[in-house]
C-alpha cells in the first residue's frame, strides 16, 4: 500500500494545477489555506468542490461557519501560496486579504478571481473532507497570468495570453 501511495503522490504531482487560497475565519480572524483540489462540478445550480485535509483548522471552521471563499491566485502570488501552505503554523491572513464586495468572505487582494460559497454538502473521503459549495458571489479581478503548480514547484503559463470576452447574460 505504501508504495502505491508514494507512486500516487508522484503521479498527481504531474498534474499541473492552478493554485487557490481557501478562506475562512478562525477566532474571528481571516484564515487562508493553499489548495489545489478545487473544481467546478455544476453550472446550474453553480456548485464548486474543494477537498481539505480533515485535520486542517479550516475544515472545522468551514463546517461551523457553513461558508468559505476561494481566491484563485495570480502569477505574482507565490508568497501568498507559500504562507497558506506552511505546515504547522497559524495561517492568519490579515496581511493578504480584504472582505469581498458583499463583506461575506475574506478575499485575497489582487487575486485573479474570488468565489464566495455557502456549504451545500460535506463528504468525508479518506483523510480529507470534501466541501461542495453553492456559489453565491463572484468577484472578477484583473485579467493576468495565473499561478501554477507542478511537481512541487510554482511556475507560470508561458504562452502569450489572449483575453477572451467574458460573456455575462
Ligand atoms: C500547491 C499546493 C496545493 C495544496 N492543495 C491542498 C489541497 O487541495 N487540500 C489540502 O488539504 N491541502 C493542500 N495543500 C496543503 C496545505 O496547504 C497545507 O497542508 C496546509 O496549509 C498545512 O497547514 P497545517 O499544518 O496548519 O494543517 C496544498 C499545498 C500546496 C503548496
Automatic annotation (TrEMBL):
Gene3D superfamilies: Electron Transport, Fmn-binding Protein, Chain A (2.30.110.10)
Superkingdom of origin: Bacteria
Lineage: Bacteria, Bacillati, Bacillota, Bacilli, Bacillales
Keywords: Oxidoreductase
One MF annotation (Gene Ontology) recorded for this entry: riboflavin reductase (NADPH) activity
PANTHER family with a match to the protein in the record: FLAVIN REDUCTASE, FLAVIN-DEPENDENT MONOOXYGENASE, REDUCTASE SUBUNIT HSAB
InterPro entries per record: Flavin_Rdtase-like_dom, NADH-dep_flavin_reductase, Split_barrel_FMN-bd
Transmembrane segments: none
Organism in which the protein naturally occurs: Peribacillus cavernae
Claim: Oxidoreductase is one of the keywords in the record: yes
Pfam families per record: Flavin_Reduct (PF01613)
Flavin reductase like domain boundaries: 12-156
Family per record: Belongs to the non-flavoprotein flavin reductase family.
Name of the protein described by the UniProt record: Flavin reductase
Amino acid at each position: 500500500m505504501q508504495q502505491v501511495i508514494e507512486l500516487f503522490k508522484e503521479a498527481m504531482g504531474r498534474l499541473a494545477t492552478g493554485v487557490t487560497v481557501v478562506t475562512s475565519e478562525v477566532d474571528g480572524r481571516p484564515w487562508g489555506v493553499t489548495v489545489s483540489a478545487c473544481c467546478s462540478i455544476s453550472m446550474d445550480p453553480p456548485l464548486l468542490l474543494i477537498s481539505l485535509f480533515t485535520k486542517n483548522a479550516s475544515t472545522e471552521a468551514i463546517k461551523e461557519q457553513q461558508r468559505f471563499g476561494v481566491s484563485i491566485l495570480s502569477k505574482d502570488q507565490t508568497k501568498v501560496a507559500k504562507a497558506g501552505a506552511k505546515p504547522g503554523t497559524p495561517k492568519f491572513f490579515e496581511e493578504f486579504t480584504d472582505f469581498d464586495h458583499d463583506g461575506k468572505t475574506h478575499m485575497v487582494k489582487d487575486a485573479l478571481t474570488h468565489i464566495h460559497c455557502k456549504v451545500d454538502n460535506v463528504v468525508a473521503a479518506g483523510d480529507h473532507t470534501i466541501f461542495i459549495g453553492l456559489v453565491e458571489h463572484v468577484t472578477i479581478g484583473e485579467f493576468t497570468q495565473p499561478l501554477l503548480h507542478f511537481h512541487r514547484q510554482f511556475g507560470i503559463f508561458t504562452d502569450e495570453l489572449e483575453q477572451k470576452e467574458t460573456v455575462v447574460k
